[in-house]
Structures are given as structure tokens and as C-alpha cells.
């Protein structure tokens, strides 16, 4: 157990000084030609120096970035290497890559680290180990020219037994670290090694020391809580390297810092040690009422284990929690109580250092932020975090899914007899041994999205192996697939509102907005819990004010490219507006995704991709938070947690847009996975207008709310006949202190005629041109699909924001980020809107063309703007006005004619535009050439 191992050495340093801290200055040398072993660098003085803990990059070591930098990671969109627009970013001295954050230096290969150490005479006869908390990646150790061995774990400490090599006196310690992918190909995109996220670094971080302990010592302590029988089964191994039979006393005592915890009695046992290793099992009673661990009460215990033999004593402390994380039917339970996973991914994103932090404070901050956004779960995508992450999660009551550092895809595979097959078993053994006692370690998978013709058989065997070996957690094959009957739970991308390759056929883009669907049909065929894999992936515009935050080893050169592209199109002043407007749409999309999961009866949970930005894979700005876990200004944790929480009021709206001759019939329900059932609750609701005035309100029947979801609370029935004007209304449902809201839009069922001489047309024909020449007014209502590709017709508009990004989805639609408008513009007076997309814009975005504004006139400021992908940053309009000759023209890229009888939003928008054009306010200042307008079509 890593924690036990580390505690022993901390204690030894404080009390017996039997520890040599290796942090500080080391000798160092790059071995780019890979000659160090043959030339015996382990025996000669190296030429450079480096500070550890740290990496080559944090020390400024390595090569400058060039077009030939040998990155680790797939580059799906390789246009940076040849497109003329990127030529200046390929020039020496101005290298800027758009694929991911850019390190200040880069090196892939072997590097040597060397230090002289002095072993005190008091260590004679002791067991001596070298401890490297996290090394990246393959680590080979020499003492005085003698090769000790090699370790290559990506997720656990590298420890080396130096007992036979380190006698009292001075010695030369040499370490060779190689960060190349060689025989064991975990996948170049695995977040354990990839430049997409943490970077493929070379170095040693975290605790770094050599320590001595008695020859007879504790090697491993694993604790198996048994909540039902109020006990812990302790299994431990006693190492006896000299293989001398002996007798030892071992004492166990569990304690808690919680004053409410029952004081527990020690257990002492005499052990007859025979052989090199002795295994021991004891049952430790936890009293009459042990404190349980969960997200609401993360109660922890320390098991103190003291081994005494021939006057020598060592003590270990192992932190654990009394909990049972299990599957019951299609839902998860914690200590027998239903729970719902509200999770996000952690993909090893640490721009300051390029490697994960190893201190508890950093991880506690991350979990605190996640909790403030209503989450209780984190998945570590294709990597295993350091000890500190588990310690922080234990304290925070977070449920973790840990993976064994592999994404066997895109150049790698699993189950095909390659070295990776055995490595995954070896790595999982190391991970469970190091972190298995942590109560937060609730779930494990091999890794992410595997490939290989035999991967299903391999992963089925892998799941069976661990189910039989260790019941402290649940197991599944992988993040994503395959779904097999043997898994304890599914981790599948099926239940989400947009999938890869769906383009505009997804629920959110291909179906009129509503909130009455769920994933019941999808999960009906499975008998165990389902966690939806990587839901969301909704993008937001880059926050260029974020650039100064990147003051560490990874720089946001990608943002600099995107910012310059925006400047080139003369829209630099719109950057903040694009961020805020696209951010509001992003949150709306995440709300739809999360609520669909919460509405599904018997669902297990979801894993967002992501709560914070993913900097790689072409730059995936999918977070409401930046890579530093800071908010971007358009949503707070308090706002987000209204729809993402342990208790969330929900409604099943059949649509989001109504006419005032209709009556609302809205079923109300709740997802409640709190600490206990709610009793004597009277849910309430109200509907307010945009000014905040309450138009309607009411209460539902008093009830008790059990744990679970899809619990029906009643129905809201309300006539809309009193809503006389087009209105944006907000429905809020409240259950105790939990509130959730939805915007609805109500329009008059009958609209008055606009008595004006304006011409509404879909063609700029002779009649329309003549009308303009005579000083008339024309509303050019462009038919969908009639804008030339080069004029904006090739832009893929949809309602949602961009899914993941355009680089890694090969331009999957939509390639836009919603609208930006001035809500106070008189053209929109009778079509109530905020400055950003909301559900009333779904119809328009589903029947529209983008129009390149710079193809019409310079500095054309549209009434409604479309926010383009940040990579292309084109100035796009949806509705704009201009003077043409003596006339006045309003152009709508939205088709407001097709099937208009079935489209109340289109009726209302057309009415609002016509009413504006009939008024004195319709007086465009911008002039445009009629030929340029004609050339759009």
C-alpha cells in the first residue's frame, strides 16, 4: 500500500532519520543518440544539471518546437503542416501549433539523471528502497555501475530494492528515463502519455527519496470493509528477505478523528514468520455502529499496524472508509442507498507543469470546484492519478473511476497477444495494491475505447479476473465499449443527445426542443447500471483573456492563432461577446444532456466531457471552466447546480414554444439522490415574465419523496390565454431549497396584418430590384440552401454549439456556436430574445443559411449574427439590413416561408421583421451594392 509505505518513511525521517531526501540538484544529460548504456554513462559524471522533482520541460531542457517535433498523439487535421494560412506559424521563431497547448521545450527519448548519495552506518543490515512517486516513463536504475532493474508503471510509484547494493558509504545513483512508446504501446492518445493533455514529459515528480526499514517489514496491507458485519478484513504481507524463521508481534488499532466515532480496541497477534514472505489475515471488529463513508459523510478511519521483532519496530497507517459501493439492478448504491453518478472527466490537464500535481491541496481544490457545480464523481480517462488525488477524493466524498493508462486505439490494440495485454494486468495489480484501500476508488476499467479483433474476449476475462479477486469496487471493460453481460456496469455513449457522426440528425439538432424524452428504451435491454460515456462535448468560443494564465510550461499558442484569425476578419471587438453568447448556448446544451439522464428511470449516471476545457485533439473548448478550473464568466456553480445536483426538480415539457390559445399540461417529477428521503414536501411552481413579474403560480400536493428518480409530483395545468403579447417566460419548480427553471416562449395565435407596401420575396428578381430602385422596402427571405457555398452556404448551421470541435470530427455539423444579437434592436421587438441562442431560435437555425457579411459590405453590422467556428472565424450574418440604391433592404438568411403554418416561431419572427420595416425605425445606415446582394444567391 503506497500510503502505508509513504507514511512509514515520513515517520522514519522525523523519528529515526532513516530517510535520504533526493530532491534538489542532480547531474543530468540528454541521450538523444541512445548511446548512454553502451558508453556506460551510469559510471561517468554527467555534463549538465537539473532540479528534481520536476521534468525536463520545467527545467527548460530539450529542443525548441519545430515543424518536425516528434509529437505523441494523433493529429487528425494535419492542415497546419501545409495550408498557406498557417505558413507564418511554421516559420522558425514563430512556431504556433493549433492541436494542443504548446510546451516551451520538447524531448522524446532517453535522458540520464545522476546523484551521489551517502549511506549512514546506522543503515547496515536494513532493507533499503528507492522511491520515485511518479516517473515518466521507463525507469532504469544503476548503483555504482550495477544495474538494479527497470520499472515502467505509468500510474504508480517506481520502487527499487537497493538493499544488496547500498552498504554504508558513498555511492553513485544513476537513473535513465525513456519517454518513448516502445514495445508496450498503450496508445499514442492515452492521456497517461499524450501531448494532447498532460504532455509526454520526461522526469521524476512527487516524493523522491531513499529510505531504510527493518529487514522484517510490512510489504502490503489491504483492508476489506464489511459493512454488513461491521468489521474489516485485513490482509497483509510480511517480508523476510533473509528467509530466517522468526517470531513477530503485530498490533492493529483503528481510529477516527470524528468525535462521534466509537473508540475501538486494539488487536495483537503473534506471527510465526517462515519463508521470504508471510501472508496474514485478521478480522478487526469496527464496533456496534461504525461511521460509514459516502458523498454526504466522508467518514474516514486510520488503521495503525505495528510490527515488532527482536527489538525493532515499524508502524504503518492505512486510511480507509467503511463503505459498500455496489450495483442493485440498474442503479448504483452506496451502503445500500441508491446513488446517481454526476461526473466529469479528468484527462491529465495541468498546463502549469505538464504533469499531475502530487499534493493534496491541489486535488482538494479540484474536487471542491466540482462539488460546487453539483458533481459527486470523476472519471480518470486512460490514466491513474497520484496518491494525493485519492486522499483528496476520500476527504471530499467523491466516487472515482480509475483506468489503467491505456487508450488502445488509433495505432494500438488490445487482446491481440501484444505486450500491452500483459502490461494491463500488471499495471492493474500495481494500481490496486497502491490505491486499493481508498474508499473513493469505487470503479475500475482497463482504459478507454479499445480496438483489436479480440478486445471483447480479452476485456471479458479482465473483468472476471478482478471481480473474483477484489470485491471492493465495481468493474467494467472500458470507457465507451464493449458492453458485455459480465460487467458490473456499462460505460456507453448510447444515451446522450448528440453522438459522433450524427450531425444535424441528433435529438438536439434534428428534433424540435422538448424535455419529455429519456433513455429508457436504450437501457431496457441491460440488467445492470448504465453510465453515459462522455456526454456533452459542447464547445464555447475561446476566452482570449485566458492567455496570460498560461505562465507555466504549456502555452496557449493555439489561442494566439485563433485570436489573430478573428482580428484578420476585423471582429476583435466581438471576442468577449462571442464567448458570452456561445457560453450561454453551451450551458443550455449541457442542461439538456444532464436532465435527460436525470429523467431516466433506473439510470446509473453520466460522465461529462467535460466540466473544464480539453486543450488537445485540435483544441476542444468543451468546458464551462478553463483548464485551471476557473469559471469563464457566463455561469456559476450555483447556477449550474440547479440542474446538476443530488436533488433536481424536473418537468416533461412536450415543447418549448406555445401559442396563447393553448393550455400547459406539464408533468412534474424529481430526481432525488440525497442523504435521505424527503418528508412532508409541498412542491411549488411559478411562471414569470422577462421583467420578473409572476404571471402564474401554484402548489402541488404535499408528499414524501423517496430516494430515486422519475418520482411523479403532479402536473401543472395552466391556460395561456392571458398572455397577449409575444413573451419569454420562465417556469420555476421548487422543492424545499432546490430550484430548477426552464425558458418557454408564448406567441399570439393570431397576428394582425402589417399594412405596408413592403415586398416579401425569396428571389431578388426584376420586381424586387425595381422596388428598391423606386425607393421601396424589400424583405429578402432567402430559401434554405440557396446561398452560394463561397458566400456562406457551405457553413453547417444547427441549433447546438459545436460538438467537440471541427478538427477531430472532420467538420461534423453544426460548425457554428449559436447567435449573437442586440435584444433591444427594434426588428426583434416582437420576437423576445436575449443576446444569445435559446429554444425559440431552434426553428430559425434549422431553416437557415449563413451569409458571409464581408461579401456584402465592409463593416456590415447585422441584426442577428451567427458565431462561426473559431478556426475559420468568418463574419456571418443571419439577418441584416442595408440601403440599396434608393431603397431599403432587409435580408433574412432564415427561410420564413417553408411550412410556416407549422412554425409559430417563424410566424412571429416574420411578423416582428415586417412590423419593424413598416415603422420609421427601419432606416439602414449601411449601403450595399445590389450586384453583391445578387451574387449571394
Summarize the SSE layout with pairings.
Layout: H1 2-15, E1 19-21, E2 24-31, E3 48-52, E4 54-55, E5 102-103, E6 110-119, E7 127-136, E8 138-143, E9 146-151, E10 158-161, E11 169-178, E12 203-213, E13 217-226, E14 231-239, E15 246-255, E16 267-273, E17 277-285, E18 301-309, E19 312-320, E20 325-328, E21 331-334, E22 337-339, E23 341-346, H2 360-372, E24 377-380, H3 387-396, E25 399-403, H4 419-435, E26 441-445, H5 455-469, E27 474-475, E28 490-492, H6 507-510, H7 520-523, E29 530-536, E30 554-555, H8 557-568, H9 575-599, E31 605-609, H10 637-640, E32 647-651, E33 657-659, E34 663-672, E35 678-681, E36 684-688, E37 694-699, E38 703-705, E39 708-719, E40 727-735, E41 738-747, E42 759-761, H11 766-773, E43 777-781, E44 816-821, H12 842-845, E45 851-852, E46 864-868, E47 876-884, E48 887-892, H13 904-917, H14 930-934
Parallel strand pairs: 23-24, 23-31, 24-25, 25-26, 26-27, 28-29, 29-31, 33-41, 42-43, 43-48
Antiparallel strand pairs: 1-12, 2-3, 2-6, 4-12, 5-30, 6-11, 7-10, 7-12, 8-9, 8-11, 13-14, 14-17, 15-16, 15-18, 18-19, 20-21, 21-22, 32-34, 34-39, 35-38, 36-37, 36-40, 40-41, 44-46, 45-47, 46-47, 47-48
Helix pairs in contact: 2-3
